[in-house]
Design goal:
Strand content: under 5%
Distance between the termini: 50 Å
Number of helices: 9
């Protein structure tokens, strides 16, 4: 009975945290959408209701079942890298260069890893799991939540393993994940924004919507 109560308490806590994180994104991207599109933002939100419902189901399923498994997976990956001395760089390097440099480095290197990992996801072996992410007919920032559990596992395993090999400390991995999460929501948002001359360097909402439309 105690174990059952503990599981329920953990599940409730996971849902509470997920709801709080979701509320932040709702307020943030709701404000941005109204600022960028005015009344059209409300009409677009109404059109996307069916897809949003499905994305919410993915979001809370992930919070309850997938995220806890990923926590164990990430800890396991870091343990293997440390236990078998697989790292090609020491964590000491990042202590020497300092927090700001480490933060910038993990973002750029993490983005490089993510780019090539994403290209792999569009190959025939990984596409069956990744295609679910491309199935949203009315993209919103919540489209970021629509991932097959297998896709989530491969993403976490590849990204964390590569960054751990380079000796990045845990706080840097967490920071990279947070930035990628919110920027990921931003580029999935229904916003008419491009980056002009920087369009070929940084992914914008318009460019990423084109990527989803092409299914490439």
């Amino acid at each position: 009975m105690t174990n059952g109560a503990g599981i329920l308490a953990d599940a409730f806590n996971s849902l509470r945290i997920a709801a709080a994180v979701l509320a932040i994104s709702v307020l943030l991207f709701g404000f941005i959408a109204l600022l960028a599109k005015g009344r059209e933002a409300i009409k677009a939100a109404v059109r996307a209701v069916a897809e949003v419902r499905l994305n919410l189901a993915f979001y809370f399923f992930d919070a309850l079942f997938v995220a806890p498994l990923l926590t164990i997976l990430i800890a396991g990956v870091r343990f293997v890298v440390t236990e078998y001395s697989l790292a090609v760089a020491s964590e000491r390097i990042w202590e020497v260069v300092g927090g700001p440099v480490t933060f910038i480095a993990v973002l750029f290197i993490g983005d490089f890893i993510s780019y090539w990992r994403h290209r792999v996801e569009h190959t025939r072996w990984f596409w069956p799991a990744h295609v679910i992410h491309h199935s949203d007919a009315d993209m919103t920032w919540l489209t970021l939540s629509r991932f097959h559990p297998i896709n989530r596992v491969t993403t976490a395993a590849i990204d964390v393993f590569c960054l751990a090999l380079l000796g990045f400390p845990t706080w840097a991995l967490v920071a990279n994940n947070l930035v990628r999460h919110y920027y990921g929501e931003f580029i999935h948002a229904d916003l008419p924004w491009m980056y002009g001359r920087f369009q070929k360097v940084f992914v914008s909402p318009v460019m990423h919507r084109w990527h989803h439309a092409r299914d490439v």
